[in-house]
Amino acid sequence: NTGFKVFSETIKNGAVVRGISVPAGDKISRQTIDNLTELAKKFGAKGLAWMKMTDNGFESNIVKFFSPDELKNIKEKLNVLTGDIVFFAADKKQIVCNVLGSLRLYIADLLKIIPQDKFNFLWVVDFPLFEYSTEDKKWNAVHHPFTAPSSIGDISNVSDSPNADLASLKSRAYDIILNGTELGGGSIRIHEEKIQEKVFEILKITKEDAKIKFGFLLDALQYGAPPHGGLALGLDRVLAMITKSESIRDVIAFPKTQSGSCLLSNAPSPVSERQLKELHIKIDHIKK
Description:
288 residues; 33% helix
């Protein structure tokens, strides 16, 4: 119901508005805010709205569009204190989360908020199990089709219609975070044949396709697979953090260039017609 049409129209169209509060963010200059706006656009945002909290209340060129009650709700919801700055993004949920998440890490590094002499670990859990693709008109697995749901009962009786409440289903997937950086991730896998078949059904994988592509797995699950899962760490990222390197390139013996080439082996090298033929690859030359 806000008078700020950028927000109200976004919500009206089924998208979301989210915000993050930066402690002592009043140190951020207007030039830096402009730079952050351009950075947000690179992350996928259309723009970046902001408000600073002063002794006199919120200050910004958008404050006039909000009622006193709305400003009070923003302050309470985000626990905004004097000297803080709030950044807002309005778009599809996935875009907004990516933009604000990336800005959060960038600003934390900019203001030296993350302690450099401590290792702060965090587990991220309760990932969504499915997400709906408006382009493909079907549900997709957020992690992969073999990730176990948090509750077997939640998935057993659901339908695969676009209006089904599949977006609320959680998975047994997890990430391990160190000082704001993802070190690795994994999941507990499905170990029951009926649940795996149900997931395939929701993902519009027919029984015939499932048999062709994953028949070996479905057959194996019939014999009683034990609950199982795992976690994969990015060792280059771990080493970079242990050595306090700014980039994983600093701990890789022969890192690729930004263009993807290898200075050691001069890869990629030309591919022969014979190799293409063996792999059944045909190259179409597009006329410019």
